[in-house]
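Regression test case RT-17, inverse folding.

Input:
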């Protein structure tokens, strides 16, 4: 018999998932998940994992709770390991307790993986510690939306009203006027601070602070809706002083990353750390080329070359992949001088034990040629492992300078199989502020997938280009780069966006 894991997915920030939860997600055979503040983790499921959505959003139940219980038990009985993933913590207003009871009754083993509950995390991201010695001696987690089938309310408002406890309400936005009213009626001062945090810990987090007396009206005026956490008590007065997350420079800014999935992670992480809502939209798919014999022949005779020039991280990666496939390694480069077109390529080489002999100051082909000529590359044998299709300036200029140049295609790029629909929709809704382009092919492919007119019709969308070559490809589509760094690197691009934002 298998095990069912009742797993908490945390409040939304993907970083706020426990290591244990990640392990269960990566290994389970069946994933049964609720409406989550962030469903990005589902990418971690095994390829053959059966992924089932049984979520609830507001009052609309996709599957009633008893059917969810039946489904969990049915799947567990097939001998598979089941991950029952829930937002926040499974035992805090998540009906995890009921599911666990059913499992016990059915004789099925289960484990609980607690998660970070929104009632603690969302306030923390809004600068509100739920306890603080100067303000309160306790904290109380309360549902703002009781089981509608209950005959009598379980709330004892006189207890909430008379304690100095921090009160944290889940699912309470609709009932906010009633909540505030009851608390004042039972003894809480009308000027008690109240905070609302919507979409806590996510890039679209918003918050507001008011008082018991005014909060219902203020929240309505500001259009505060679910999912929000409501915090009542003196601790809310720390919001201004301790707020940190909402000060992130790109918070809420929509940024599209068009790089190939393999290359996107660095840029995606920096952007997320700065608070941006990142839309991963890989326009390029990268594949090894299908010319094993030619590559092998060159790899076996690397010693014939005086210089190896790498023009991209992918070139390095695919070159070494091929080297390893035929049982060779970095020692084959002994005695050969190595150039990298930029710092990221140089880092990729360093990971393979090679310190580049030359990295140009500016990261375009023309500067590489000048630099190499100064290092006396004339008349030498130069091998350039790179993409099948790329700018020919580098090989041509080196040939002109009298080098014996050979381009060795080790990978190729093609248009990614993505639909531009999600991005076009997000643009139309005004959610996109920057589209980042890191090469001419990202530009060309992007406009294969997204219509240029859509972008032109959205005035808040700005175009960020890594450098002049990419910008000139953009101008071919009728776009000017709104943002472009001095330094044609990813950190440079990020800096330029920060300056612009
Ligand atoms: N088990 C979950 C709570 C589920 S009840 C947990 O432990 O967090 C659903 C309610 O949780 C929502 O109505 C809202 O009040 C709150 N909530 C969940 N995620 C939230 C988020 N990211 N920001 C603000 N409130 C959130």
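Golden output:
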């Amino acid at each position: 018999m298998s095990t069912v894991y009742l797993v908490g997915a945390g409040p939304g920030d993907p970083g706020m998932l426990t290591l244990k939860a990640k392990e269960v997600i990566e290994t389970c055979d069946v994933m049964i998940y609720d409406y989550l503040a962030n469903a990005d983790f589902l990418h971690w499921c095994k390829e053959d994992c059966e992924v089932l959505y049984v979520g609830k959003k507001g009052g609309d139940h996709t599957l009633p709770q008893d059917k969810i219980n039946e489904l969990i038990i049915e799947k567990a009985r097939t001998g598979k390991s089941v991950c029952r993933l829930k937002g926040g913590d499974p035992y805090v207003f998540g009906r995890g307790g009921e599911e666990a009871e059913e499992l016990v009754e059915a004789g099925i083993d289960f484990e609980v993986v607690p998660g970070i509950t929104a009632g603690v995390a969302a306030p923390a991201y809004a600068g509100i510690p739920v306890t603080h010695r100067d303000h309160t001696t306790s904290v109380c987690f309360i549902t703002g939306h009781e089981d509608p089938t209950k005959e009598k309310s379980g709330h004892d408002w006189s207890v909430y009203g008379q304690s100095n406890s921090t009160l944290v309400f889940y699912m309470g936005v609709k009932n906010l006027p009633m909540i505030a009213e009851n608390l004042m009626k039972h003894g809480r001062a009308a000027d008690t601070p109240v905070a609302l945090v919507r979409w806590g810990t996510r890039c679209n987090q918003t918050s507001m602070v008011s008082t018991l007396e005014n909060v219902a009206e203020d929240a309505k005026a500001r259009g505060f809706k679910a999912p929000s956490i409501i915090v009542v008590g003196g601790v809310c007065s720390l919001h201004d002083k301790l707020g940190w997350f909402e000060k992130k420079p790109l918070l809420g800014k929509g940024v599209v990353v068009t790089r190939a999935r393999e290359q996107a992670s660095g840029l995606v992480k920096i952007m997320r750390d700065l608070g941006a809502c990142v839309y991963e939209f890989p326009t390029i798919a990268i594949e090894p080329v299908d010319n094993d014999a030619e590559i092998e022949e060159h790899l076996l005779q690397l010693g014939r070359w005086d210089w190896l020039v790498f023009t991209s991280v992918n070139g390095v990666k695919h070159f070494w992949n091929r080297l390893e496939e035929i049982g060779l390694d970095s020692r084959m480069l002994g005695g050969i001088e190595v150039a990298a077109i930029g710092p990221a390529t140089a880092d990729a080489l360093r990971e393979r034990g090679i310190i580049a002999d030359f990295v140009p100051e500016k990261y375009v082909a023309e500067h590489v040629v000048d630099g190499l000529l100064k290092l006396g590359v004339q008349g030498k044998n130069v091998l350039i492992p790179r993409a099948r299709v790329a700018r020919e300036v580098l090989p041509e200029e080196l040939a002109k300078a009298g080098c014996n140049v050979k381009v060795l295609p080790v990978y190729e790029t093609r248009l990614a199989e993505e639909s531009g629909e999600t991005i076009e929709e997000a643009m139309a809704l005004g959610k996109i502020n920057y589209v980042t382009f890191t090469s001419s092919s990202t530009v060309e492919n992007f406009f294969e997938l997204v219509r240029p007119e859509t972008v032109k019709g959205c005035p808040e969308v700005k175009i960020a280009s890594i450098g002049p070559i990419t910008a000139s490809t953009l101008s071919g589509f009728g776009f000017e780069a709104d943002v472009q760094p001095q330094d044609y690197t990813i950190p440079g691009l990020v800096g330029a966006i920060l300056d612009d934002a």
